[in-house]
Design goal:
Length: about 100
């Protein structure tokens, strides 16, 4: 089962977002394709569609194999999700073997 949750936030004031990795802003003027695991937020001026990234091979090699195709003009915020940096950070808390 595949579930996509979208939460609409509107109003004035500060918004705090949490992500796995850094958050980067990408300006879209036309089309942008991003892995679903990297999407943090996007402006409502963009239309989006979730689709498969490819065939079975792409799904097996990249994980879930789903992408978001955003079209129009606006901003998308993505998370960098660096697994190697995360593993390195976790390893720093592990007791050393002597």
């Amino acid at each position: 089962m595949i579930t996509l949750s979208v939460l609409k936030i509107e109003g004035n004031g500060d918004l705090f977002l949490s992500s796995f990795g850094s958050i980067e802003e990408l300006e879209v003027d036309g089309h942008l394709r991003v892995d679903t695991g990297h999407i943090v937020a996007f402006e409502p001026t963009l239309d989006f569609r979730v689709s498969k990234a490819g065939g079975l091979k792409a799904t097996l090699l990249s994980g879930e194999g789903l992408v978001v195709d955003s079209t129009g003009r606006g901003w998308v915020w993505i998370q960098t999700r660096s697994i190697s940096d995360y593993v390195g950070w976790l390893a720093s808390f592990m007791p050393s073997r002597k």
